[in-house]
Amino acid sequence: MPPPFTLEQVERLVRESEGRASSYPGSGGQVGHPLARHERLSNEELRRRYAEELAAREEYAELHPDDEAAQRRQHEAIFLTAFVRTLDVFQFAMAALNSPAGHDAWALMFHASNSHDNMRAVIHHNLTDGRGAGIAFPIRYAMFTTGANPARASAVRVVVDRMGSARERLHVQTVMPVLEFRPDGCVVRNRAGQVVGFDAAELAQRRLVLTPRL
């Protein structure tokens, strides 16, 4: 089932992925959580997740003083975000999967020369309307440990895995609102965790996909 996806298809993918263990080795067997961690949770649960993430980063950095990435991560600003409306999860995941970055992610996971099972794609998509203007939607976010705050975001990050199952091969690990700006794009990794890309021939034959509008 390649893109473009319908809203009904994306909703089914998201709901079937919820609570299902990822087959991507780098996930450590973590289950899909687009709804549980980024829509269904209460403000107090969102605040608690922030506190737990902060503590985990500090503990890891303390145990690994020579790990420069861990030391940087300890001091980076953390934003844990959640949707306000359930429909936004499905609608904006659909927009990301149907975007040019989403098409590239699908091609790299399923049709490139080195495609294989148990790959992962992280897609970043900025939402726009029919005139190309940004779409802002309501979200909640936790920062520091004082509670959840209302905000508006205009981008989403979608993490999808290529599963080994012959019946349903696309797994939606998560969908989350994104507050910081970055260009549209995707990063695809093989089962060993290495970033992959199109080879020269594949790049030359890449089909231009117009940015879908909501």
Describe this protein's structure:
Residues 16-43 are annotated as: Disordered. This protein has 214 residues and is an alpha+beta fold. It is 32% helix and 22% strand. The protein has helices spanning 7-17, 43-63, 68-75, 86-98, 100-110, 200-204; strands spanning 80-83, 120-126, 137-142, 148-153, 155-162, 170-178, 185-189, 195-196. Helix 1 packs across helix 4 and helix 2 (43-63) packs antiparallel against helix 3. It is globular, with a radius of gyration of 18 Å. The relative contact order is 0.20.
Helix and strand topology:
Layout: H1 7-17, H2 43-63, H3 68-75, E1 80-83, H4 86-98, H5 100-110, E2 120-126, E3 137-142, E4 148-153, E5 155-162, E6 170-178, E7 185-189, E8 195-196, H6 200-204
Distance between the termini: 21 Å
Instruction: Give the strand order of the largest sheet, numbering strands 1, 2, ... along the chain.
Output: 6-5-2-7-8
Helix proportion range: 25-40%
Count of discrete alpha- or pi-helical segments spanning 4 or more residues: 6
Q: Structural class given helices, strands, pairing?
A: alpha+beta
Region (Disordered): 16-43
